[in-house]
Amino acid sequence: MKRRMPLKYAAVAGVFMFLLVAFNAPQSFAGGTGNISKIEARMKELGIILPDAPKAVATYAPFRRVGNLVFISGQGPARSDTVKTTGIVGDDMTTQEGYQTARLVGLNVLAQAKAACDGDLDRIVQFVQLTGFVQAVEGYTDHPSVINGASDLLVEILGDKGRHARAAIGVKTLPFNIAVEIQAVFEIAP
């Protein structure tokens, strides 16, 4: 013989289940993305994992907000077991390896952007400017192809919001022998 739940308990259980489903529902049910921003959903779709924002390695701020603009300090590459991140492009690193390193640096730029937006990447209105530094041999002139790694990544993830003004500069040395360093400016919604 089955025992039935008293009506008052059934009503409480029903409300509980509704709340559980409503607040954990997929986008198609709840009409939103839950805790995942559209940009993070796009990264997931692309198989891109955003690292935690790196901490400053000296006496500076990783980013500064001035009104609706965010200035991101020079970033190095995210750690990788598969991509070479140190060395001199044109000597012990190819342009393609530099491009892959710049993609990793772009991930750290985006991680700092997320920190500056209090965790909500959907607050990004647009990337305004990106300045890339490439540690390269004397006479190397393909710096833009290296920095395209970060530019391509931002556009791949953000679409037109990721397009930016840019400079690609060759330098003799960079801190910790990294091959690429990038600083950026972007606009956020209040």
Number of alpha- plus pi-helical segments: 5
| Computed structural class | alpha+beta
- CATH 4th-level superfamily of the largest domain: RutC-like
Order of strands in the sheet with the most strands?
A: 1-2-5-3-4
Helix-strand pattern: HHHEEHEHEE
In round numbers, the mean pLDDT is 86
Proportion of residues in extended strands: 15-25%
CATH architecture of the largest domain: 2-Layer Sandwich
**Main sheet makeup:** 5 strands, mixed
List keywords for this structure.
190 residues, 2 domains, globular, 60s Ribosomal Protein L30, Chain: A, 5 helices, single chain, 36% helix
Describe the overall structure.
The chain is of the alpha+beta class and 190 residues long. 36% of the residues lie in helices and 21% in strands. The protein has 2 domains: 1-34; 43-188, 2-Layer Sandwich (60s Ribosomal Protein L30, Chain: A), CATH 3.30.1330. The chain is built from 5 helices and 5 strands. Mean pLDDT is 86; it is low at 9-33.
